[in-house]
Design a protein that fits this description.
By secondary structure, the chain is of the alpha/beta class. The protein contains 9 helices and 6 strands. Strands 1, 2, 3, 4, 5 and 6 form a 6-stranded mixed beta sheet that branches. Helix 2 links the parallel strand 4 and strand 5. The longest helix has 16 residues.
Length: 300
């Protein structure tokens, strides 16, 4: 990964020096080995702070929403799942392709810095750090699907057991599923971390921030927590690119990707085959974002 780091630094410095981008989004190293965090570079001389290592797990695409109303040109480093998020933002008209310079990186899989932090603390001193982050074991596209430059060696998808957890939930009775999700969602502290980290959560005014009218209460109770999670994930139907960041950042370990992957599976079955963000075709929209006069209406 040192070679990719060096190339990223050179590319970012050249783009900034030549005025081709105003800011370059990548990663930087923190105090400890596992503290690799997002970096926003505006000066060529700061490009040497850029790194790419096994903890460059953050999906930088969500940060593009901070720039959507401006005119700055953005350089960005993306892994496979990150690049699918770029496609989603383009399809949602949140950004234009002309404003982006995308450096794709073939991803060998990332480690989870949160798990590494816990393993290195007294709380998890007896735990063994997994080889890869949990979300990387379900990855169907480790290679960027959209880019201006490509770095690294093409990787093989690792999604052999992609819908295993979904199958376990589907095998439950309706009452068992309700009890399962009621228990899981009862842990939710409504920190909105899952929403903030999601590149597909790009509404300018979120329904959960509305006060007049207030569609969903903010209390930590069964009804409001259930409404928050179900409404958010139905908004993701046909749009989730399975980057897994929602589940990774959840401070109370709710298995949020269960809902996403169930919807991914069903959208592909009923409206597909379809996988969100796998190819950028200007003007193309995901299945549930389209309406045609000849659509069947037998469900009404």
């Amino acid at each position: 990964m040192k070679d990719i780091t060096n190339k990223l630094q050179t590319i970012a410095a050249n783009l900034l020096n030549e005025g081709k981008v105003d800011v370059f989004l990548a990663w930087q190293k923190g105090v400890t080995d596992y503290q690799t965090s997002p970096l926003f570079v505006r000066k060529a001389e700061d490009a040497d702070r850029i790194v790419f290592d096994e903890y460059s797990i953050n999906n930088l695409a969500a940060a593009l929403l901070k720039y959507r109303d401006g005119h700055e040109k953005i350089g960005i480093a993306v892994k496979g799942c990150d690049s699918r998020a770029i496609v989603r933002l383009l399809e949602d008209n949140q950004f234009t392709r002309e404003r982006l310079y995308i450096v794709g990186i073939c991803c060998p899989g990332m480690k989870d810095p949160l798990k590494a932090m816990k393993a290195g603390s007294a709380l998890g001193a007896t735990e063994q750090l997994p080889e890869l982050a949990a979300k990387c074991y379900d990855c169907i596209q480790p290679n960027p699907v959209i880019y201006d430059e490509l770095l690294g060696t093409e990787q093989t998808p690792r999604a052999g057991e992609r819908f295993t957890r979904v199958a376990q939930i589907e095998a439950m009775t309706a009452d068992e599923r309700y009890a399962f999700f009621t228990h899981e969602f009862s842990k939710c502290i409504r920190c909105y971390g899952c929403r903030q980290v999601c590149p597909a959560c790009n509404c300018r005014t979120c329904i959960f921030d509305e006060m007049k009218p207030q569609w969903v209460g903010r209390e930590n109770n069964e009804t409001d927590n259930m409404m928050y999670q179900l409404v958010r994930y139905y908004h993701m139907a046909g749009r989730c690119i399975e980057c897994g960041e929602c589940e990774r950042v959840c401070p109370v370990d709710i298995p949020l990707m269960l809902l996403s992957q169930k919807l991914v599976k069903d959208v592909a079955k009923f409206f597909g085959p379809y996988e969100a963000g796998m190819e950028y075709v200007p003007g193309r929209k995901p299945p549930l974002s389209l309406y045609q006069d000849q659509d069947p209406d037998y469900f009404m």
